[in-house]
Amino acid sequence: MNAFAPQPLPQWKRSVLKVGSSLLAAEGGGLTPRFVLGLAQFVAASQQAGREVVIVSSGAVAAGRAVLPKTQRTGSAIAAKQALAALGQAQLIALWQRFFEAPVAQVLLTHDDLRNRRRYLNARAALLELLRIGALPVVNENDTVAVDELKLGDNDNLAAAVASLVDADLLLIATDIDGLYSAHPQRDPQARPMLRIEAITPDVLAMAGEAGALGTGGMRTKLEAAAKAADASIPTALFSGRNAETLAQLAQQTLQGTLVLAQPQRLSSRKQWLRHAPAAGQLQIDTGAARALGHGASLLPGGVRRVLGEFRRGDVLEVVAEDAAVLARGIAQYNAVDSARIAGRHSREIEAILGFHYDEAMMHRDDLVLLQTECS
Q: Degrees (nearest 5) of the Cα angle 11, 13, 14?
C-alpha cells in the first residue's frame, strides 16, 4: 500500500524520466521487462496527450552480465565494467524498443559532453531533433569510455543535467520505494512520508538512505539531482516504478510520491551549464578575492592562492575559499600550468611571465556564476 497521499503533478509538456537499474535488472542477471511495461504505458499515454519524454536509463552493465559467462569475467574492475556496458547497451535499447512502435534512439553522453560548451550544445540539438521527429531518446552514460563516470556511477545527476539540457518542465525519477521518508521506514516506525519539499537543505539530505544493492545511487543522489533541477526551475517527482497503480495515476497527472519544488527564479541557460557542468579543477582564492567576486568583479590572478587539478583553457573550474567551501564556478582563461605560474601575481605581469596574455583575469565575470545567490 502506498503511504503517499495523491497530489497533482505540475503542468508539463516535456519531461525527463530516469529509470534505475533496480527496476530493470533481473534477479539472476540480465534485464527483466517486469516493471518496464508500466513505465512504458506512462510514456505512451504522455505522448498520446501531446507531451514529450526523454528517458535516462541505467541497466547496460546488468544486461552485459547476462551476455558474458561468469567464467569469462576477468580483468580490472573498471575494464570489466566497460566491457559489460558495451555488451549490454544493445540489450538495453532492445528492451525499451519492445514497448514502442516509434523508434527508440540511443544517446550516450559523458561528462566531457557536458563540460565542453560546443559538445553540450550539439547534444542539445540532437535530442531536440529526435523529439521533433517523434523518436524516443534513451540516454545513458557512455560507460564504455567514461572511466570517471563509472567511478561515480550516477545517472540521477545525469538525468538532472539532461532535464536542463532539453529545457524540460519536469524531472521524473522512478525508484524502488514510494518516495522520500523523514527516516528509514523499515527501521523507524515514526518515519513519515514527505509529500512536498520546498528546498533541498542539509536536513532534507539527512533523511536520505544508502545506495541500493543493484543501483549505484541511493536516495541522496536523487535529492542532489532534484536540487540541480530546482536551480533550473524544474520540479522533480520521486515515485515508485514498481507500483502499477502509482504509474497509472501518474499518467493521469497525479503523483503518489514526493514532489521537490522548483526555485522561482530560473538561471540563464549558460549559467545553468556553468553551475552543473563537471569541473576539471579548482582555483583557491583569498578572502579579498572572495569579497570582490561577491561584488561582481572578475577573478584576477593576484587573489589566487592555489591551482588544483589538470585543466585546459576553456574548462569549467570551481572557485573555492581558503576553507575549501565552493564559492563559484566559471571558465578558465588559462590552462593549469599557466595558471599556476601567474597565481598571486599582478595582471600586468601576465605577459612578461607567460610571453602572451589572453585576459587580465583568470576567470572573467561574464564566464562565472556565484553559487547559492546568483540568478539572471
A: 120
pLDDT per residue as tens digits for the range 121-165: 899 999 999 999 999 999 998 877 765 543 444 789 899 999 999
**Count of C-beta atoms within a 10 Å radius of residue 306:** 14
Q: Residue 239, SS3?
A: strand
Any long-range contacts for 185-189 (C-beta under 8 Å, 24+ apart)? 185/3
Distance, in Å, from the CA atom of 26 to the CA atom of 32, rounded to the nearest integer, reads: 5
Under 8 Å between Cβ of 175 and 222: yes
SS3 20: coil
> Domain 279-370 class?
mainly beta
Task: Kindly tell me if the per-residue pLDDT of 112 is higher than 50.
Answer: yes
The x, y and z cell numbers of residue 118, run together, are 560546443
Give the CA angle between residues 248, 40, 59 to the nearest 5°.
125
> Collapsing DSSP states into helix, strand and coil, what is residue 34?
coil
Q: Cβ distance 159 to 226 under 8 Å? A: no
| pTM summary value | 0.80
**Close Cβ partners of 116 (under 8 Å, ≥ 6 residues apart):** 314
Domain formed by 7-270, architecture: 3-Layer(aba) Sandwich (3.40)
C-alpha cell at 267: 538561471
What HEC string does 249-264 produce? HHHCCEECCEEECCCC
Domain coordinates in residue numbering, the chain: 7-270, 279-370
Tell me what percent of the residues of the chain surpass a pLDDT of 90: 65
- According to DSSP, residue 282 is labeled E
pLDDT exceeds cutoff 80 at 301: yes
